[in-house]
User: Fold this.
Amino acid sequence: MDNAKQIVKEYTIKEEDEKVYLVDFLTNRFTYYPKENWEELIQQKRITLSGSDTHPNYQLKKGDKIVFKFPELLEPEVDSNFEIVYEDEFIFAVNKSGNLPVHPAGRYQTQNLTTLLGQSIQGMQNSQKPIFFIVNRIDRETSGIVLFAKDKTMAALLSKLFSSHQIDKTYIVYVEGSFPSQLTAEGFITKDEFSKIRKKKRFMEQIIPGKECTYVKTEFIKIGEKNHISKIFAFPITGKIHQIRATLSSKGYPVLGDKIYGKDENIFLEFIQYGNAILQGELLRQALHSYSLKFIHPITKKVIEIIAPEPHDLKKIYR
Assistant:
């Protein structure tokens, strides 16, 4: 093993993962590498099991501890542009780009908003590592507003506002097809068992007995249409992972540039394996932007409205 600086991660196997081959578990659970890459990492002894070397076809047992050792250079490039669009004594909000993870995960251990933001603040203030807390998260390929609290108490208060639906959220979305002037989608999202993509979900209006389902509600208003592409506002009443994207895809209006929920999910699988994707026009990410947050400030009791202007890459869609 070389002496280059490494990122070390651990994962403990649960009961539902017993008897699965190690390489299959890694491929399905951590989708940022294809099977061949995981096999190579195991053979390079960058992945060990409970402190010992292992092999790709080892059958996992409950309690096994997988240890990952990744060299830092495996991190992909990101669009590291972001700006603070609101700040007061208790909170601040950042407008991030459409190719920047919010927090450390998978391959993105240093190239993510929270790490880069901390480095930026520390550099400006010439101080120790700053302390802040993420309140909401958006996908790597979703641009727009991410809200932060400056202490744990404020983080808890803001999280409660989100969970109790007391924060009005507005997204700008470009979708394929001629969208109706107005639409309310109320139903449930569940794992898409027909997909090759582990994290993919689908929206349905009725619960299927025996399936794990989560209630969601989103309101949509059409803003415009050009070349069979509709621009809409999305107002998620609930706030679940992939809610907007899964709902629109199931309704027949996939988000433009969406690698997972678009018409061909193989685009996502190829992107994971080769790092590229063939998308419509010049758009390299999903056309989804967190445009505004509106809420009553937990401390000052003032109405706060935070806006992140529509980014240039989305404006060019109607050029």
